[in-house]
Amino acid sequence: MNPQQSNPYRTVALAYLFIERKRFWLYCLDCQFNRFVEPDAISKPLSMAVPDIGLRMMCPDCLSRNIHSKLEWFIGNEGQWGEAARRPN
């Protein structure tokens, strides 16, 4: 891909999650520790992309740096997706 072209697969920045009150998911590939995190709970720049957050984190259980970070896809164990789960009845 030519660097002059825009990337059709842009990543979501931490600022978007903060504005939309969404969380992201951290997952340790070594010990399988995982946690949903509020964007204001970490001290990272709001311009940072969600996949890059995991590159700068360390697992609290095994101290590994092999962490993946992804967007929150559902809320709770009911499998409710996105904003539909946050709307009041």
Explained architecture:
The protein has 89 residues and is α+β, with helices and mostly antiparallel strands. It has one domain (14-82). It contains 2 helices and 5 strands. A 3-stranded antiparallel beta sheet has the order 2-1-3. The model is unreliable at 77-89 (pLDDT under 50).
Chart the SSEs and their pairings:
Blueprint: H1 14-20, E1 24-28, E2 34-37, H2 50-53, E3 67-71, E4 74-75, E5 80-81
Antiparallel strand pairs: 1-2, 1-3, 4-5
What structural class do you assign from the helix and strand content? alpha+beta
C-alpha-based Rg, rounded: 15 Å
Largest sheet: number of strands, sense, barrel closure: 3 strands, antiparallel
Multimeric status of the protein: single chain
Strand arrangement across the biggest beta sheet:
2-1-3
- Assign a percent range to the helix content: 10-25%
Number of domains: 1
Measured between the Cα atoms of the first and last residue, the distance is 46 Å
Query: What is the helix/strand order?
Result: HEEHEEE
- Count of helix runs: 2
Query: Mean pLDDT across all residues, rounded?
Result: 76
- Dominant shape: elongated
- What fraction strand? 15-25%
Low-confidence stretches: 77-89
Q: How many distinct beta strands? A: 5
